[in-house]
Amino acid sequence: MSEWRKDPIVDRWVIIATERGKRPFDYKEIVEEKKAGACPLCPGNEGQTPPEIMAFREVGSEKDTPGWWVRVVPNKFPAVMVEAQPFLRQRGIYSVMNGTGAHEVIVESTLHEPGLDSQTEKQVEEVIWAWRDRSLDLRKDPRLKYIQIFKNTGSAAGASLEHTHSQLIATPLVPAEIRQEMEGMREYWIRKGSCVMCDVIRQELAERERVVIDGRHFLVFAPFASRFPFETWLVPKEHQHDFGQIREEQVKDLASALRAVLRKMSVMIKNIPYNMVLHTAPVNCPEDRHYHWHLKILPRLTVMAGFELGTGYYINPTPPELAAHALRETQEVYPLHERPLTEVHRYV
Amino acid sequence: MSEWRKDPIVDRWVIIATERGKRPFDYKEIVEEKKAGACPLCPGNEGQTPPEIMAFREVGSEKDTPGWWVRVVPNKFPAVMVEAQPFLRQRGIYSVMNGTGAHEVIVESTLHEPGLDSQTEKQVEEVIWAWRDRSLDLRKDPRLKYIQIFKNTGSAAGASLEHTHSQLIATPLVPAEIRQEMEGMREYWIRKGSCVMCDVIRQELAERERVVIDGRHFLVFAPFASRFPFETWLVPKEHQHDFGQIREEQVKDLASALRAVLRKMSVMIKNIPYNMVLHTAPVNCPEDRHYHWHLKILPRLTVMAGFELGTGYYINPTPPELAAHALRETQEVYPLHERPLTEVHRYV
Description:
By secondary structure, chain A is α+β, with helices and mostly antiparallel strands.
């Protein structure tokens, strides 16, 4: 029988629909059309992007030339811009504001591959450091209140470029999703005296059926009220509200876990489309230490349709217990092009 | 320059992104693959669906045989079921409930066509009456608190059958989206002494640039903070909280407006995929007369990606003013198979 399950943090119910059940191995590989033309994110084509904001690159190599291994550039078609002032005004009953913000692209590798899972573990660490560095830099602008780091992989997840990259949009507002999570976490803390995410980790570790990887610093699991088949959360085991405070040993463990779970997904369903979102506490606001930051992987094997858009509730045909079991059982097989990075120098 | 626009009812901001702007006529026709095999919703194939719940049919014709012009059946793969009791229980910190509810399919016509816009105006009226009748019938079950009527057209919008149909999921909970709208409308009323949707109508009629059809009983317009290109709302001009109270002259006007705007969309972008959601006040709860019911058409020409899923905010590349202008200018051309209905009898 189907079940209504409530997300432990926000007001979101999910119907785990066994009647329209799809077992993990019912999903078929996704066919992606190869994009034609030169890739603007490949080394040698640096001139096709706006000038770089930062890069991890070989000593002596020039800005906007090859020699980098992670490169951050402004989005060529920005949704928002730092130049605009966040001036709020009324048009009759409507509120409107200039398109203030920052919209950046993090080129995650020199390899033209669609996902982070085809990269070395070391390379994934570098990407996480780039996210952290941008997050610390952007919060120096007091107008920005939230830094949303996300990744779209596959056309069903909205990716328009094949080459592995993530994006960042910094906003002058704390987004609704974050505010709802903040409120849920704060209320739980007031009512129960503990962090709901820490309690989720405790229950998942006790029950184990939804755990995918039990890392040293991160727990990787399919959430109880998964909205999407194979939805997976990566959560730091210690209570930490701000992703910007991530430490070196955590970066290593997160890189290893993230690469492994994405690899498992790719091995199970070739070209699996997914969005990844990093949820963390707002910046330039009174610090909210109730918050517990985390990374969500949201595979896009189902279509959000009228029910989801109309209600905000979701129908998920694959129970998270089955999804986690399948992910645990799937062996990670890595492609062959493991390539050492040249001289990674990092200032933590 | 891009703009952040706030929805007047809920906490939802939309970036109207002119930099990545797509003019209305930049959108191309959508190619839909023809589905193979017999259609379970076509007349003659009544045996392929579960037994009908109700139908508008010719006098003397038998249940589950041809002779109907609108037919309502249970979903063959229901997400929820009336048989289940909504018993809430805890599993550790998680809340879970049996999959109570109703999940029905409204077969909107005998014609195997994808949209309501290929139907006669009279036929669209009949569909609206069927929605109303099911809404009045289902609320007799006191366990059900909300009746979500929706329609998915095109595969990008999650439709799995071509034959024009809508769906209904009745839930034992008031969905988050509705609760947020209720709160927004109630707060506005307390603060300003009027209904925000009535004020939206007033401002739209004064400004006119987002109006698509100014009907006698319904206003059809592109909302100020449109999340999707060509998003269109159909709102009753008089304050009415409950769709179940719709009157005959309103049904006629809504049918005419709905068919016309869908036709305009189809003429402009062939096979435009869209979701339609009917938002109305909950049932079997203290009546909320602050609510103002409405119908939203949400075209799916863009992909909801990491930013949308991470923040709950949206990027819309087509300003609603341009969308409304293009829809106003587009002539409705109807296909040729206008066919009179045989003996429509209706008990209002």
